[in-house]
Design goal:
The chain is α+β, with helices and mostly antiparallel strands.
Length: 244
């Protein structure tokens, strides 16, 4: 029985998605819950890896179980064994044996949250990037248009990125003000390591007036990571959803 899991998690305290020996990870915790539920060790395949401290609203994974179970029992059982973790299974679907959470994904959506007010958050300390300075939203929107499309994104790629090619197609960046927060919605089929966080860091510097909107085009064309802005912290990033 191959199941498609939709997963929500608070990445604070976890060393990212990918299983690591002797370190708490999202994949490791879910695989342990599957073992406790089914008494069979099996791998959980995620639609994309998230770094340490990154959260998820709709991460998707698949897992093969040794026999048929009612879907509600799988969800209840896994959540029972995850009750002490910052991870919850939001939904479980029965899917064909051909489905693959990673390779069948057509588009991935990320959300980045910036808290833009004078005081830091008491409730969302590990869930937003606090930027108290005034930010010019329109300048960031103008700059973001230079990033949309198919480009060599070497200037926004982490040095430890293992992707064979830095060329990606960015489908969309939407920037909006939501009460005291600025939300960045970014979508593409796939991303380079730290690509979204590097986008946000550079756009925030434009919003703060450090550079004009056209600067981001110069950075993009330079293919040089050292020319771009800071990398936004992991705490504000959310794996929002996957389209298949």
């Amino acid at each position: 029985m191959r199941c498609k899991l939709t997963i929500e998690y608070d990445g604070t305290g976890y060393h990212g998605w990918q299983r690591q020996d002797d370190l708490p990870t999202i994949q490791g915790a879910i695989e342990e819950a599957v073992f406790q539920f089914s008494q069979v060790k099996t791998e959980v395949y995620g639609s994309g890896r998230t770094d340490a401290g990154v959260h998820a609203l709709g991460q998707v994974a698949h897992v093969d179980l040794p026999k048929e179970y009612p879907l509600h029992k799988i969800q209840m059982g896994l959540n029972f064994y995850l009750k002490d973790e910052g991870i919850r299974i939001v939904s479980v679907e029965n899917t064909s044996g051909e489905f693959h959470a990673r390779f069948d994904a057509k588009k991935r959506h990320y959300l980045y949250r910036v808290l833009n007010r004078f005081s830091e958050s008491a409730l969302d300390k590990n869930r937003v990037w606090w930027v108290p300075q005034d930010i010019n939203l329109e300048a960031m929107k103008m700059a973001s248009k230079f990033l949309i499309g198919r480009h060599d994104f070497s200037a926004f790629r982490a040095s430890e990125c293992q992707a064979e090619s830095p060329v990606r197609t960015l489908d969309n960046i939407q920037i909006e003000k939501v009460n005291d927060e600025i939300h960045f919605h970014v979508s593409a089929r796939s991303f380079l390591h730290h690509q979204v966080r590097n986008f946000v860091g550079s756009l925030i510097e434009i919003g703060q007036g450090k550079y004009p909107p056209e600067w981001i085009k110069e950075v993009l064309e330079s293919l040089d990571r050292t020319k771009a802005g800071v990398s936004a912290p992991a705490c504000g990033l959310y794996f929002e959803k996957v389209l298949y």
